[in-house]
TrEMBL record:
This is Putative cation-transporting ATPase 13A3. Its main location: membrane. Residues 223-315 form the P-type ATPase A domain. It comes from Smittium culicis. PROSITE patterns: ATPASE_E1_E2.
Length: 1200
């Protein structure tokens, strides 16, 4: 034994070192050298840990500091990887090049002797990008390829065996395996085998989940195709793996893009749903001959196609490329042609109503032949061309995939507490080890028993407990059409306190309803003023009609309009039609961006049906969030005049239009429409006269084009709520969740939606903060106004202070969380005031009083979400597009996307209903609550095992082997799995489950139950020792070798421990299944009820029945056959191994069996009542409130 113990300790130390340094242990056998001569390179990257929720607990903070210090001290604070250096000896390179691949990035040895990741920058403006329109030579492409590597994100999915090995080679499993080594050596073969199977099943389950997860990532990441690439001035077919930044490639309908690229020629309709969650197809435009700044994720987004998106349609300047995609094949359009016989109708349908549109579009041009384009000169290749900007992980999709493949460490409050819990358990194990040595005698055998108690304290099922709960929740979410790509975030969703929402397409319907236009009348005799609003566009003047028909970015795909929903609704209201290029016998229309045709020439319908009017869009600046506007230049062929139209937010156009064209009551009129919930736009116009050479407009900058315009009308759209939005928001409020709106729309519209949706109580007063210009010095100041009365609030702080006092009063008077948190004052801010508050470090002061954030850019949405994340677990819900950044930044992001596997956020829902948010929180709370129940059960398992071991060692007995097998094989595994099957609650309650392992409820529940069970075991032995039939029959182990443990269980002491401890093991699962707030009632978990009833029935039968085969299997109430006959029982018909007891049996008297069973039943009831009344009930709430530390500040107050 002594030799084994020495070897065991040496092996433990050796394996600890091996596992700790496994990533760099090989490098100790390699010689350090200069990078230029190296064959391998060791990459050390600091571990990035993201703390999801900050804890203010001093013990947690000190443990975090200690953990960081120890990791730095032993160099465990970095990820270590060893990469092989490859030499590129391509003959076309001027010299051989050394590089290595790390995290799908290529690092090339530079002249400075360092390996560097080189990103090929093509420029930061449209003009700079257009200089690359002739493509690359083969030599240039080879040179760039040697720096950036192949355009392929390779995901190496491990085999199941390798994943299992990686899972086992960790400290937790080392701890379990070293304990098992002791078990096998000590002849615990059957028990050791059971424990080994439990550990192996747990490891296999985690390895299985890892491999399947990486397979899904592989499907998302690894994409390749054959492309038509412009090399050396000719079109050649190449694998998409060979693409490099600077390449020009041709795309066609049905293509899935493998790079980020800027459109050079033609227009492209793409489906970005799998990347951004955006449900509507997006139109991409070619770069402009202008020095416009280009940034692909912001200002250049509408000119950029992204890797991972599908091309639905391409249109170029060539007739043969576009004619096949146009529905108006029989139309002939030219100047002055009489089309009076053509019926005016809408040959298109809304995209929303055609769920199969994507499938149909992907089929377009599928059979088109590109072979004849090979080796064709540039000028003859009429293709849709894009310029490759970035490849591999430098693409938008690649960066997302890289974050999924190599994630940062996310530290939830659970992980923070786990750093304390495990040392506590190990200390308790050391104490148990010492007590074992003392109780069992100071010999080598006692060392083995000490290891046994250490091995029982930390259950081998602990790693799998949380993973099982998350997997069950993920499958349930999937049934509700909510898809998850990051399982740990499900538990984070259970702690969401603030839910941020985009407005349009999220809270409201995706489509807008045209509500009318209100023209501005101006003349030399009277100042400008608003006319009456008109729903019939044909009643507007010709200038307005042409503006509404042309100032948009709508296009046709088949018979479906594609574009921004607002633009679609605007264009649809005009009854005009888009005429495709290449349909006329001449090429006249092909030089224009768009050609449009009116239903009638006259403003009012003419009985004589005059000919239809044709106009051409000759220049367009697409909508930009930063500018909040778009503009077009339109040629009227009847007059040869070019008209400029600017459309955008009504605030923007008020500032950019001529002052002489702004009505005096402009603010009042726009406020009226916005406060009624209208999505409001304005349009301005100028006539730049006859332009002989249309190409001269190419040199006109955006500022030149959009300046000097006169306001001509307001456009109103109804932004209707989704039918279920108010009910969903009400459910979230009932769940004690603060709902916030972060929208790009106007503040007054946002306020209206907030009130009608129930996000804000109708009785609440909303104060709007905006930047207003002072008439005294012309500077802008933050002004708080009541938007309804236009009253200026001089002291907003006093108003909020009074409101908080009211909340504090209600908090003491009313117990309900929702009622006490209902505010009477709510704030709304514009982007300008938000920026002002942020710049002056005042935003945190008002953050949780602000309900509506309006006119927010995508970057502003990210900032607003991150500010909320500082104080509370924050979720974001949006429909993709400009919400992508905020969805990724939030603790929990939910994209309302028709794509099942959108990688823009951890969660995506194809239902596009706000009730998806409710379902996510319900299942998140259930998963968190259930996982903590499983955690408490396993802690109870370990602690009960520890007490069992100590009682055994005190009496020098060991419970029978079959009892151990029953506990480890059936009770622990079966009940743990059954616990995770608890059904989610049907609605949200105004509470969130705890995520603190050392929290009040968790500690009270586990420690309280341990103490109750310990006292129950101690007291039963007091009762046992008072029984007359027991006296003088105590087990005496002095004449038995204690290493022969299997001979120590045939006695009353071991039998007493077996029956009572089995009952306590089973009862722990039933008790921890309580908790109606986050799960359905305990009896709805049918699997757990079945196992609980079955196991207690077995234990009760064994305890109460006369000697039988089942009792004898457990060595309970049994004995040698002859002894049983002498006691008055029938001779057993089954074989019984000889009893290792002087009296030859351990059968309790019948009367005592009943008393013992009732005693165990009382133990069960007491524990149930303790959990129900004290932990979860009024007693626990009173104790928690009585000893809770009063908050000295209102910083943590969150108004619902």
């Amino acid at each position: 034994m002594a030799v084994f113990i020495v070897i065991w300790h040496l092996a433990s130390i050796w394996l600890i070192v091996i596992i700790g340094f496994k990533d760099k242990i090989r490098n100790y056998y390699r010689l350090k050298c200069h990078l230029k001569t190296a064959h391998y390179v060791q990459v050390s990257e600091n571990k990035e840990s993201v703390i999801m929720t900050q804890s203010k607990n001093s013990l947690v903070l000190k443990m975090r500091q200690l953990d960081s210090y120890l990791k730095r001290y032993i160099s465990f604070d970095a990820n270590i990887s060893t990469c092989k250096i490859t030499i590129d000896n391509d003959s076309s390179l001027s010299s051989s090049r050394k590089y290595f691949e790390y995290h799908c990035m290529r690092f090339v040895l530079g002249e400075n002797g360092l390996f560097q990741n080189n990103q090929h920058d093509l420029g930061s403006s449209h003009q700079e990008l257009l200089t690359h329109k002739n493509g690359l030579t083969t030599a240039q492409a080879t040179q760039i390829f040697s720096y950036v590597g192949e355009n392929f994100v390779r995901v190496n999915v491990p085999t199941y065996a390798k994943a299992l090995f990686d899972e086992i080679v960790t400290y937790f499993y080392l701890y379990q395996m070293m304990c098992l080594w002791v078990w096998f050596y000590f002849n615990y073969f059957k028990m050791g085998l059971v424990q080994f199977c439990v550990i192996l099943i747990s490891a296999i389950f985690k390895a299985y989940l890892r491999v399947n997860s990486e397979k899904r990532i592989k499907i998302l990441a690894e994409q390749q195709d054959t492309c038509l690439v412009l090399r050396d001035g000719k079109w050649v077919k190449l694998s998409s793996k060979l693409l490099v930044p600077g390449d020009i490639i041709s795309v066609r309908s049905g293509t899935q893009l493998t790079c980020d690229a800027a459109v050079l020629k033609g227009e492209i309709i793409v489906d970005e749903s799998s990347l951004t969650g955006e449900a509507m197809p997006v139109r991409k435009f070619p770069l402009k001959q202008d020095n416009i700044p280009f940034e692909k994720m912001s200002s250049g987004r509408i000119y950029t196609v992204f890797a991972g998106t599908h091309v639905l349609q391409c249109s170029s300047d060539s007739k043969e490329d576009t004619a096949v995609n146009n529905s108006l094949k029989n139309s002939v359009i030219s100047k002055g042609l009489d089309l009076s016989s053509t019926e005016s109708e809408k040959p298109y349908s809304s995209l929303e109503s055609d769920s199969s549109i994507n499938k149909n579009l992907l089929a377009c041009d599928e059979n088109s032949d590109t072979a004849d384009l090979l080796d064709r000169p540039i000028e003859n290749a009429n293709l849709v061309q894009i310029l490759v900007l970035s490849t591999r992980v430098n693409t938008n999709k690649g960066m997302m995939i890289q974050k999924i493949m190599f994630p940062s460490e996310y530290s939830f409050v659970f992980n923070e507490h786990l750093r304390i819990v495990i040392p506590i358990l190990l200390i308790w194990g050391a104490i148990g080890f010492g007590l074992t040595i003392w109780l069992m005698g100071h010999d080598l055998t006692s060392w083995f028993y000490g290891i046994f108690i250490i091995s029982q304290i930390l259950s081998p099922l602990l790693p799998a407990a949380f993973v099982i709960g998350q997997s069950v929740a993920a499958n349930r979410l999937k049934k509700n059409n909510i898809f998850c790509i990051d399982l740990p975030r499900i538990m984070v969703a259970g702690k969401v306190k603030v839910f941020c929402f985009d407005k349009t397409g999220t809270l409201t319907r995706e489509g807008l309803e045209f509500n009318g236009a209100q023209e501005v009348s101006s003349s030399n005799t009277q100042p400008p003023h608003f006319k009456s609003p008109q729903e019939d566009i044909s009643l507007l003047n010709n200038i307005s009609q042409i503006g509404l028909a042309s100032c948009h970015a709508v296009t046709m795909v088949g018979e479906t309009l594609i574009g921004n929903p607002v633009d679609i609704e605007q264009f649809r209201s005009t009854d005009w039609e888009i005429i495709g290029k290449g349909l006329s016998k001449s090429d006249e229309n092909d030089q224009y961006l768009d050609t449009l045709i009116s239903p009638y020439l006259e403003t009012k319908p003419n009985p004589n049906r005059s000919h239809r009017k044709v106009v051409h869009v000759v220049k367009r600046f697409e909508f930009e969030h930063a500018r909040q506007s778009m503009s077009v230049a339109v040629l009227d062929p009847d007059t040869n005049h070019v008209h400029v139209y600017v459309k955008g937010s009504f605030e923007k156009l008020k500032n950019s239009s001529l002052n002489s064209s702004i009505p005096e009551n402009y603010d009042l009129e726009t406020s009226k429409w916005a406060s009624e919930g209208c999505y409001l736009l304005a349009m301005a116009h100028k006539d730049i006269g006859v332009v002989e050479d249309i190409s001269s407009l190419n040199s006109m900058s955006r500022e030149q084009m959009e300046s000097g315009c006169s306001l001509i009308l307001l456009l109103m759209f109804r932004n209707m709520l989704k039918d279920d939005t108010p009910a969903a928001l009400q459910e979230l409020r009932k769940g004690n969740t603060r709902c916030v709106m972060i929208t790009g729309d106007n503040a007054l519209t946002g306020i209206h939606i907030a009130k009608t949706s129930g996000m804000v109580s109708e009785n609440s007063r909303i104060i709007l903060g905006d930047m207003e210009t002072s008439g005294l010095d012309g500077n802008k100041y933050l002004v708080w106004r009541d938007p309804k009365t236009r009253e200026i609030i001089q002291d907003i702080d006093e108003l909020l202070l009074n409101d908080n006092r009211s909340i504090d009063f209600n908090e003491d008077k009313i117990g309900d969380l929702v009622l006490r948190r209902t505010a009477n004052i709510e704030l709304a801010v514009t982007a300008a005031s938000f920026d002002y508050l942020t710049a002056n470090d005042l935003i945190r002061k008002y953050l949780f009083d602000i309900r509506v954030f309006s006119r927010m850019t995508p970057e502003g949405k990210v900032t607003a979400v991150r500010l909320h994340m500082e104080k509370a677990v924050t979720a974001m819900c949006g429909d993709g597009g400009n919400d992508c950044g905020a969805l990724r930044a939030a603790h929990v992001g939910l994209a309302l996307s028709e794509s099942d596997a959108s990688i823009v956020s951890p969660f995506s829902s194809s239902d596009r209903s706000i009730f998806s948010c409710v379902n996510l929180l319900i299942h998140g709370r259930t998963a968190l609550s259930t996982s903590f129940s499983a955690y408490k059960f396993l802690i109870m398992y370990g602690e009960t095992m520890a007490w069992l071991e100590l009682f055994q060692f005190y009496f020098s007995v060991i419970v029978p082997e079959s009892v151990w097998i029953f506990i480890d094989s059936f009770i622990a595994v079966g009940l743990l799995f059954a616990l995770t099957q608890s059904k989610p609650a049907k609605n949200l309650k105004p509470f969130r489950p705890t995520a603190r392992l050392l929290g009040f409820n968790t500690m009270l529940s586990t420690v309280g139950q341990v103490l109750i069970n310990f006292l129950a075991v101690a007291f039963i032995f007091v009762i046992l020792y008072r029984q007359s039939w027991f006296r003088c029959h105590e087990f005496d182990s002095r004449d038995i070798d204690t290493s022969l443990w299997w001979l120590l269980g045939d006695n009353y002491e071991a039998e007493t421990l077996s029956i009572l401890l089995l009952t306590q093991f089973v009862n722990a699962a039933g008790v921890f299944n309580l908790g109606y707030r986050f799960r359905q009632s305990w009896y709805k978990n049918y699997l757990l009820v079945f196992f609980y009833t079955l196991f207690l029935t077995i234990i009760s039968f064994v305890c109460l029945a006369d000697p039988n085969w089942l009792g004898c299997l457990f060595r309970i109430n049994c004995g040698d056959p002859d002894v049983l006959v002498s006691l008055g029982y029938k001779r057993p018909s089954f074989k019984i191994s000889n009893y290792n007891s002087p009296i030859g049996h351990n059968v309790f008297p019948r009367e005592y069996r009943i008393k013992f069973w009732l005693y165990a039943l009382c133990n069960v009831l007491i524990v149930f009542l303790f959990e129900f009344l004290v932990v979860l009930g009024p007693v626990g709430r009173f104790i928690k409130k009585r000893f809770a530390k009063p908050s000295s500040t209102n910083d943590d107050l969150i108004k619902l």
